[in-house]
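Q: Convert this sequence to structure tokens.
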Amino acid sequence: MTRAVRRILVIALVAGALGAGIWYWTRPKPVSILVQTVARGTVEATVANTRAGTVKACRRAKLSPAMGGQIEQLPVHEGDRVKGGQVLLELWNDDLAAQLRLARSEASAARAQAVEACTVADVAARKARRLEKLKPRGLASEEAVDAAQGDAKARRAGCQAAQAQAQVSAARIQVAQANLDRTILKAPFAGTIAQINGELGEFVTPSPIGIPTPPAVDVIDTSCLYVSAPIDEVDAPQIRPGMPARISLDAFPNRTFPGRVRRIAPYVTDVEKQARTVDIEVDFLHPDEEQHLLPGYSADAEVVLATHKDVLRVPTEAVLEGHRVLVFDPASRRIEARTIQPGLSNWQYTEVVSGLKAGEEVVISVDREGVKVGAYGKPEQPASNPQP
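A:
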């Protein structure tokens, strides 16, 4: 090999090495991306409340006496379990109790007077009948018979008047008993005492019309709970009673409770500076799960409108405007754009009707700098499969 040929080869090698170095240092650097494999699974269309909902008791009574007075008996405390009909509070009522005793005594006297009057009436009636039998034989005068018949009718009327007076006296007992009952507060159902506003010896007054005041005793039945949550007016027409739902609570962050829609409010709530909403009520499907729940917990209700099982799906965060997704090609290591036809969608997954195949990898870190069509990609971790 001549010196000239060797020189040419050296120059070519140097030029090749220089070109390779320039290409290496100026080549586009791959973008670190997160990808997920397109797979089959379940996709649901759901709507959720716009503001936090609340766990409520199916039965809750905020009780106050029907009349004012001084608290004389308060046999319960906050947190106590009470039975239906149990006395919770009693006002001073000695005067009304005396009136009830008086009414009962008057009723007893009226009944005795009625018995006396009716007995006298029976005697007068028998006397009149005897004289009527003696008259044909000339042993009784017509005047005596007429007088006896008139006396019998008068006595019968007196009997009826006495019986009516006895009924009036019995009614007075009911009136006196009703007035006495107004001073006694009883539990309308079995439950738990949530709050008591008052102490022995204090005076309570009824709430004036149109002016709410704190209840004397607040009773809650915690054996039955449900969630009341506001739904945006735009989503409300899609919801029907009986639809399945999922309930989540801040107090139990890693747990969801199955539920079912039981009621949709027949009106829209318009609150100043807030979106117009429709309240829905969701029952817990498993009452045994309610044992550790408390009324007043904040809760969210996600209503399932429709469900498609065993369909192709991608994370919703991977779907861009115009139903486009970014697909990573392992062979060329480049990012490509693909337009899909979506089906059902929620915050987690979007159904893919067409445009992708199972096994392809979509980019889910679409907001990272440098992630664009044509860029080289470098997955941070092996493609993961979505949950069923």
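The chain has four domains: 26-44+308-379, 48-59+224-307, 65-93+189-204, 95-181.
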